[in-house]
Predict the structure.
Amino acid sequence: MSTYEIPDLSLVVLVGISGSGKSSFAADRFGPYETVSSDACRGMVSNDPNLQSATKDAFALLEFLVATRLRAGLLTVVDATNVQPAARKALIALAREHDVLPVAVVLDVPEPVCAQRNADRSDRTFGRDVLRRQQSQLQRSMRGLSKEGFRSVHVLDGVDAVASATFVRTPLRSDRRELSGPFDVIGDIHGCLSELESLLTTLGYTLERDADGRAVGATPPEGRTAVFVGDYVDRGPDSVGVLRLVMGMVANGAALAVPGNHENKLVKALRGRKVTASHGLAETLEQLDGDTDEFRREVLEFCDGLVAHLVLDGGRLVVSHAGLIEKYHNRASGRVRSFALYGDTTGETDEFGLPVRYPWAQDYRGSATVLYGHTPVPEVQW
């Protein structure tokens, strides 16, 4: 038996030729309402699930049903051959439109087996030439599925692999609803290590230091958890010290953390990409150059691995660096990450050439409280 992980909010696209067993496979592994079948949609629009002339209308219905389910935050499985790139492209576009992760599950069953299965069914009159064409399209497609945009690809090679496959649904990395706090939410440290140490001490945390006296962690008061809101580096005098402390607290379970736009830029710089070393980045890189290669690798791994937002306390609290509108809560896509890092903009620039930020929070009416930083204000805005 092989077990595969799929996100508990995802679009699962079954890929396989006619007769590969997709419908039975889906019925055995997913709920009765989770699968949207192209054959069922043909039946709904024509009273005949095999009427190929109804395919256009059937897929219009299929895409409508898929979109409706994804909008509602429901895992959805598409039962269709999906051996043609154009068919998969439309489904990947739907996943992106609704900010969910697309997953491909390939049922690679030998064509003779599929042909015999179809022959045993009185309602299937596909010729072998159709199956061979589908099989050829499938084989040409398999290597490129990841490049098409699927977040993960699971290939079930042969009848036995299909029969023994099971799935485990895993929450998104942003989904920490099981954590109920209390939380100490701390934003935009920007290299100010002494201020961070003072704040943590005031909040009742006990700092932990290494042999050189550097703060490398902190023990929270009973039951509390720190949540860092990004922008740990740049501008202040000790970005390396802040990183060392935050990383240590996250590693020992005393804190959670999301990235800020400054960490996003730091990751690019550490990967050797061309960036403008402004707003304190040059000083941060200089400080990191004075540390060990191992520590720089740890910083890169830490910053690059942070999830852009967190959903906490049963969904009642959302934390990100620059805020997040409700429809992006517990969703995963490039635009969700971009909003969480940079916020919303009007598309205009101010007299300094900087993007004009749209005050999205003024329109927010979501059920969750969203805590964020990014833009300094003289007083807390609630």
About this structure: The domain at 2-170 is CATH 3.40.50.300 (Rossmann fold). The chain has 15 helices and 18 strands.
